[in-house]
Amino acid sequence: MNTPGNRGRMELAGDGNEPGTLRASRRRVFIAGARRRVAVHLIERLISDPDVEVVLAVDRGACPPTLLGCDPERFVFASADLSRRRQVDNLFLLDRFRGRPFDTVLHMAFQGNPHGYNFKSHEFNVNAAQHLLEASLRHGVSKYLFLSSDAVYKLGPRNDYKVREDAELNLDPKAHPILRDTLDAEFICRAKMDDPNCEVMVVRPSGVFGGGVISGINLLFESNPPVLPVGFDPMVNPTTKERLSRDLMLAIYLHGKGVYNVAGTTMGPLSRFFEERGINPIRVPGPALKALNRMQKIMGMTRYHAGFHPKRLYYSLVLDDAKFERVFRGNAHHVLALARTSDGIE
């Protein structure tokens, strides 16, 4: 019988560890893509936890201003081009981490903004995913996480009410190249999910809300005004950068590998989320949507790209994250107990 207990035993993580149990030792975390707003929020949470020994944050360019005041004994920022294998290897060989290697690598360094996307962006997305995972396996990292997207799912009128991790993917060759990059990065990870020493995990979040977040749904809501097609009101269950960072914390602290959806607590029609925020979108006939979106971008009224995920405004996409709920959120008490012990509270 496929009971929850049996499912847990069948989904054993690396080294036979049961999913949802606490990973041993203090955390040493490598975060790629540190300039993303979700990454900044996650780093702040990690640094505030005494059980985290050190965080290496990596991105191109300067350290995000909000992280400049972090304790230099527990936070290191490095600028690197992750699409270059040698630069990736050099990060694992920094003097600070010799003899005390990373136990967790979180890959968020993905160029997912359609604005300015070109062939160099494509090379970066695919090469960074390849080099980070290969280096993690070579250097004995015991957990590797890739932050993917719900855009990988195929949308249409026959979608399930809730989309599980085994739902059909959008493999259309005419799909936006960023989506194809995302799927390539996922396949790179999935090819290594049987590794006995490293728990390789792909996290697919629903649309993410939050100031400055570059997600399709957030850019749509920040438009002035948002433009929607007449006659359509798809169901969604978006998350927030705060909730996503908490979910990623659980993924870092607890055993588990494979593909997981993560979503928000509220599900409803898209119009409901506009009403809750006091936003009044305008509606136009579907064929006029892309042209008006193009005009808005030229006039600086939106950063939303209607061509990236064109069916998102027509068909529902509600993620079923029961698997993540069972394995990770259902075992959050282990992390809380660890935090209380670290603080000297019995």
Task: Provide a short characterization of the protein structure.
33% of the residues lie in helices and 16% in strands.
Describe the structure.
The chain is α/β, with parallel strands linked by helices and 346 residues long. 33% of the residues lie in helices and 16% in strands. α2 crosses α7 (241-253) and α4 runs parallel beside α5 (177-190). The two termini are 39 Å apart. It has helices at 4-10, 37-47, 85-92, 119-138, 177-190, 216-221, 241-253, 270-276, 289-298, 322-327, 332-342; strands at 27-32, 52-59, 75-79, 104-107, 143-147, 199-205, 208-209, 227-229, 235-236, 239-240, 258-262, 268-269, 282-284. β1, α2 and β2 (52-59) form a beta-alpha-beta unit. Strands 3-2-1-4-5-6-11 form a seven-stranded parallel sheet, sandwiched between helices. The chain has a two-stranded parallel sheet with strand order 7-10.
Question: How are the SSEs ordered, and which strands pair?
Answer:
Elements: H1 4-10, E1 27-32, H2 37-47, E2 52-59, E3 75-79, H3 85-92, E4 104-107, H4 119-138, E5 143-147, H5 177-190, E6 199-205, E7 208-209, H6 216-221, E8 227-229, E9 235-236, E10 239-240, H7 241-253, E11 258-262, E12 268-269, H8 270-276, E13 282-284, H9 289-298, H10 322-327, H11 332-342
Parallel strand pairs: 1-2, 1-4, 2-3, 4-5, 5-6, 6-11, 7-10, 8-13
Antiparallel strand pairs: 9-12
